[in-house]
Amino acid sequence: MGFAFDHAPERPANIDTILNGLDRYNPETTSIFQEYVAQQCETQTYDCYANLALLKLYQFNPHLTRDETTTNILVKSLTVFPSPDFNLGLSLLPPHLLAQTKATSATGPPASGTLAEAIQHLTKLHTLLVNSNFASFWQTLDSDDLYADLVADVQGFEELMRVRIAVVVSQCMQEVQRSVLDGWLNVKGEKFERFVKEVCGWRVEGETVRVPENKENSAQGTVVRETVKFEQFGRMVKRAYEQPA
Amino acid sequence: MSVRQAPTHQQGAPERTMEDDSDVEEEALANDYRQQVDYDGEDYGLDRQMSLGGGPQDLHAQLVAAAQPLEYQATLETKIASYDSYCNLFHFILNSEGPVDIEVPSHYWAWDVIDEFIYQFNSFCSYRQRMALQQSTTTVNEDEVNILKDNPNVWGCYSVLNVLYSLIQRSQISEQLAAKKRGEDGALYAGDYGSRTLYQMLGYFSIIGLLRVHCLLGDFSLALKTLDDIELNKKAMFARVMAANFTTYYYVGFSYMMMHRYADALRMFNHILIYVSRTKNFQKNAQYDSISKKNDQMLALVAICVSFSPTRLDDTIHTALREKYGEQLTRMQRGGPESLPLFEEMFRQACPRFISPTPPDFENPQVNIDPVEHQLSIFMEEVKNNMWSPIVRSYLKLYTTMDLTKLAGFLEVDADELRSRLLVNKQRSRQVRYSEGGLLEGDVVNSSDLDYAMQGDIIHVSEAKVGRKLVDWYLRNLARTY
């Protein structure tokens, strides 16, 4: 079963119509998309394709840009790392914003309270996540009130991140030390055990956590064989008819 | 059927006159456009009559001109005039009473005209952006800056998109292609306009044009979505025009690359590069020259993708790649911080000239960052996240089981850092890959020949061995012998 990038199971019909028609360029639909983003934040659903359409509307009509919605979209895309969604979002932002975040000593860091500053912070989180520096990710998240403000709108952000990290771990690990894992998940003690057992379905045995075997973490050697299709021989067969030997 | 009727509208560009069109969606677009741009309908003091003449010969001349590249040294006035004549031409084609019957100068005129239209749009936007940015550092031609400031809507993004979408809708090409896909006769869905070859082809190549424009604007997922109705195979109409074939695969491949689907990107580049290498003996003409530059660009993209996701390449491409970028490829595949400048150099060389959809801000020159730099910096973040993977992989290849702390010692990093790198590499080896359906669809598969799992601090490594591939060799030799 494949999945399509533009597919979102919970997308309402009216959003779907806009996305497939020319109304996706109509600045009047901005408010509809904005509400949809707010709804995604509340209900823990996610629709990247629709969110990119909103960023595109902002790209075409900079005066309509709402900073809060932009950052919410980016925060939402963090919850699905390591997918390219965060980067695809950045691609649609105005170039000067990103340039400001790469502040050199000459220009100084972006002014506080600006969108550039928010994006700089989110990019930092994103980098930590895609580099699998989960422990530093949680530390960074706690280090500055701005982070708390940025993720405040996204319901259950920490829980979503924990689940996402657990998925990454389950792809790679059969056994992992408890001390390592609780740093990555940023939960300790009883809460840790509850999360690992109930949400992930893993077993805690003393100081190790066992992850049940799955397709990704079994690491079995395989031999890839060539698949030969009859069509590949089509030309040859044809030629055999053309020039009877 | 004269374009003479156009002068009454000409100052407004087609968007304004499209309001009286019954098509609701077009009207919406036109409305947006009007809101967006507070157009005052003034003449810009330029001679705008030059592109318009009377009589059918002029129409013919105009059709020919529309498909011809502008001179390299074309002045700003010429560029603006060229925009106006495109507007008039498309207005004439789209908004005359009923479909127009014109004799086009060549068989693939439709491709040439769309191609040139987008090319001029692209270079105009880049040029305008550059002028705005350079204002702050160097002295630029004041007159030109003023002309650009006064005409924010010339080569506007909305108008270009409007033309492309209108051509697609008029020709009902999407409906026709969808019907063909279902195995029905496309002609049933063609309508008055779409049943004519001219409209059909303009509509068809406008889809390819949209792919290109979306990609230039940095909207890679929408770019791929645009091609939903077109099947990428040798029988597709675009494959009959070499330049169109080439352009399509370049932009599709590039969009895949920016969506981190390197295996799919490679598949696209592979396909077209092999095609070019097989047909280049028949194409010794001017067309081929323009292709050869793009060919090198695509090889650079192949080098980037192959460094990200090591795979076995086709022999012809591998040889070409070694010849052209051998040194760079080796260093990129080695990874680490030393490889970063090479990735940057290759990306710069091979990326399309990205543009920004809104006119630059002439009052604040420093904010007009080149969109190419913008996309480059996003891309480089991705490269940085990946740069340790080749090194980790090269060590893992040597072992079947390995202790984490020991490997950390080899790599001179601490255990935590190595754990992270192993997780990163594992995630990178899982890629979405196309199997069937629309271009945006795909399954997550393991794209690497190396796989591993960690049991506490023990790393178990396994390798996928690739059996010998014989069919290709067999067929090639068979073809040679008879």
From TrEMBL, chain A:
Keywords: Cytoplasm, Initiation factor, Protein biosynthesis. One of its GO terms (biological process) is regulation of translational initiation. Belongs to the eIF-3 subunit K family. This is Eukaryotic translation initiation factor 3 subunit K. The lineage of its organism: Eukaryota, Fungi, Dikarya, Ascomycota, Pezizomycotina. Residues 46-230 form the PCI domain. It is found in: Cytoplasm. It comes from the Eukaryota. Component of the eukaryotic translation initiation factor 3 (eIF-3) complex. It holds the Pfam family CSN8_PSD8_EIF3K. InterPro entries: ARM-type_fold, CSN8_PSD8_EIF3K, eIF3k, PCI_dom, Transl_init_fac_sub12_N_euk, WH-like_DNA-bd_sf, WH_DNA-bd_sf. GO terms for cellular component: eukaryotic 43S preinitiation complex; eukaryotic 48S preinitiation complex; eukaryotic translation initiation factor 3 complex. Component of the eukaryotic translation initiation factor 3 (eIF-3) complex, which is involved in protein synthesis of a specialized repertoire of mRNAs and, together with other initiation factors, stimulates binding of mRNA and methionyl-tRNAi to the 40S ribosome. The eIF-3 complex specifically targets and initiates translation of a subset of mRNAs involved in cell proliferation. SUPFAM superfamilies: ARM repeat, Winged helix' DNA-binding domain. Its main location: cytoplasm. GO terms for molecular function: ribosome binding; RNA binding; translation initiation factor activity.
UniProtKB/TrEMBL annotation, chain B:
Residues 1-26 are annotated as: Disordered. GO terms for molecular function: translation initiation factor activity. Residues 1-11 have a biased composition (Polar residues). GO terms for biological process: formation of cytoplasmic translation initiation complex. The keyword Phosphoprotein does not apply. InterPro entries: eIF3l, PCI_dom. GO terms for cellular component: eukaryotic 43S preinitiation complex; eukaryotic 48S preinitiation complex; eukaryotic translation initiation factor 3 complex. It comes from the Eukaryota. Pfam families: Paf67. Keywords: Cytoplasm, Initiation factor, Membrane, Protein biosynthesis, Transmembrane, Transmembrane helix. The chain crosses the membrane at residues 202-224, 236-259. Residues 264-450 form the PCI domain. It is found in: Cytoplasm. Component of the eukaryotic translation initiation factor 3 (eIF-3) complex, which is involved in protein synthesis of a specialized repertoire of mRNAs and, together with other initiation factors, stimulates binding of mRNA and methionyl-tRNAi to the 40S ribosome. The eIF-3 complex specifically targets and initiates translation of a subset of mRNAs involved in cell proliferation. Component of the eukaryotic translation initiation factor 3 (eIF-3) complex. Belongs to the eIF-3 subunit L family. PANTHER family: EUKARYOTIC TRANSLATION INITIATION FACTOR 3 (PTHR13242), EUKARYOTIC TRANSLATION INITIATION FACTOR 3 SUBUNIT L (PTHR13242:SF0). HAMAP family: eIF3l. This is Eukaryotic translation initiation factor 3 subunit L. It comes from Extremus antarcticus.
